[in-house]
Amino acid sequence: MVGRGDAHRKAGAGRFSVALDGGTVAGRITPAAGRYGGRDASERRAERRRRFLEAGLEMFGAVHGYRGTKIADLCKAAGLSSRQFYEEFRTLEDLLAQLHLYVNDVAERAVLDILPAIQDKPARERLELMLRAYVKGAVSDPRHARIAYVEIVGVSPRLDRQRLERRAVWIDLLGRQIDDALERGELPPDDYRIAGPAYVGAVNGLMHDWVVGWVDATVEEITDELIKIALGRFRIVE
Length: 238
Fold this sequence. Notes:
The protein is mostly helical. The protein contains 9 helices and no strands. The protein has helices at residues 41-63, 71-78, 82-88, 92-118, 123-139, 142-151, 157-183, 195-211, 219-233.
């Protein structure tokens, strides 16, 4: 599935401008100041950073994967030098870390953006719409799915912590929806503390196996299965 979604690779210059700011990375080289080509140092840096992030998304998510990518490969894809890379990042792991947060933010925004419009719908319909929005946000660009569910796993203790921290955000989001449904009388009384982490874990496991090709299914089939799993555990009161 990694080869699908080529149209998503032709993003505009502002693709990462909101989700990933410049930040300060300890140990990186300080870039030169002053205006050049009509742009000041901050504008040039933002453009370089965008190009490295776009190149990382392509190399990690569609070409060699994180473990198969060297800095020279990344710089060639970005059309920039290794010196310019070290002005923005210390290591390829730093770049992967930022891309992991970015692709999760895209999926989260896809869910949050629809919540105001579905609050008055029945619980079952809300659940289905949220899950469809999640899957669309997570996998409509196959490179995002590869980074979120495959490339980030087992890289380092630091990224394992980041992955678990980001998973906790999803568990919290699901927990808020469960609490809301309980208040509305749409779910039977139960202890749902385990259900949230269990469901998010099931989602991550299925998505990982699907992205690497161990599960042969369409996006629609994956989405339908996630809905069935949710409906089986969260017994909505009709």
